Amino acid sequence: MKNFNPADNIQDLQYFGEFGGVNPSISDSSTYTFLSAKTMFDTFEGHAEGCYLYSRHASPSNLYLDQALAAMEGTEAANVAASGMGAISPTLLQLCSQGNHVVSSRTIYGGTYAFLKNFASRFGIKTSFVDITKLDVVEAAITPETKVLYCETVSNPLLEVADIARLSIIAKKHNLQLVVDNTFSPLSVSPARLGADIVIHSLTKYINGSSDTVAGVTCASREFINSLKNVNNGASMLLGPTMDSLRSASVMKNLRTLHIRMKQHSYNALYLAERFEKDGLKTVYPGLKSHPSHELYSTMINREYGFGGMMTLDVGTLGNANELMELMQSRNLGYLAVSLGFYKTLFSAPGTSTSSEIPSEEQASMGLTDGLIRLSIGLDNDIERTYQMMKNCMVELGIL
Ligand SMILES: *Cc1c(COP(=O)(O)O)cnc(C)c1O
């Protein structure tokens, strides 16, 4: 990707707080005064730029974070939410009405899968789950009712890569909105530059990076973001997944170091993936030549941020996986916990945790094996030391 650097776009934002502070002042109000009644009317109609109405609609602190995330993804606008699901579900409900259809990758975040399969279906929105790496299968699933093509840049937990540029060609041909969840690959991939219409993040993960809150964002055209916030029919405005101003200010402060963190996460994950693959473990990491989408992903990424911090190891059985995770935790190599993007390594067995919404037959057919451990590699300063300690755990348990 030339001439687009998301970290520069974040660095180049300039803020002056209410009192000249280097951070913008945090807005601490649910409601806002108007000097004239006419302006209040115009604001309700959506025509008064710079006027705030009520904090479920917009607040100064949330708009700062919206602006920073839109700059990062290269979209016109953005709308933050109180969680990643608080961004995903309203976005899909805004795009789809009763009778509409979604074509989705089958390897997506468990909550998104459950929303589409069990919840949206109650309102007559049907979803076909497909192997997103097979473009002919994707296209064949499209019907006259299809409105949305949904995927994750790098899928959870199998780390399959979606060819966003080619999916966007299919989406345009059939007049669909291509919605991409970019949670696993902030800065590394800029989906809107590759043709995605809407980019979503769970800010809970890398972007906030301190595992102290849940948060989300939808990045899209000004028109779509306004539609989400419309007081009469906007899903975000009416379902109300509003982020609190205090939180949005703290997420923004963490966003500013994202580029440094991503480089270290990627460096560490590549280091471990290469070593464990050499040791003979079945290792999945998009930065490895053995990854089926390595070539494709190499063309998609903003190179300096690397291939990301997520990898999987298959240690054969669920018993092995559980023993290894418990031992690694007791040796302080990380935490047995779901989620990702923390300074410490986090590990979990997706089949029995984050992807447990997916029925076991489906898990098997998509290659989600019992012995699979998903690791979100931390910011360890000395990754060689970490490698040796992890390897010792594996040797002790007879896994290596
Ligand atoms: C965690 C996650 C979500 C959901 O985000 P929350 O902040 O937990 O609501 C969505 N997509 C992906 C890829 C995730 O990892």
UniProtKB/TrEMBL annotation:
Keyword Lyase (UniProt): yes
Q: Which family does it belong to?
A: Belongs to the trans-sulfuration enzymes family.
- Output the Gene Ontology terms for molecular function: carbon-sulfur lyase activity; pyridoxal phosphate binding
Tell me, what is an example of a GO biological process annotation in this record? transsulfuration
Please indicate if the UniProt record lists Chloroplast as a keyword: no
Q: InterPro entries per the record?
A: Cys/Met-Metab_PyrdxlP-dep_enz (IPR000277), PyrdxlP-dep_Trfase (IPR015424), PyrdxlP-dep_Trfase_major (IPR015421), PyrdxlP-dep_Trfase_small (IPR015422)
Q: Which cofactor does it need?
A: pyridoxal 5'-phosphate
Q: Which UniProt keywords apply?
A: Lyase, Pyridoxal phosphate
Q: What is this protein called?
A: Cystathionine beta-lyase
Q: What Pfam families is this protein classified in?
A: Cys_Met_Meta_PP
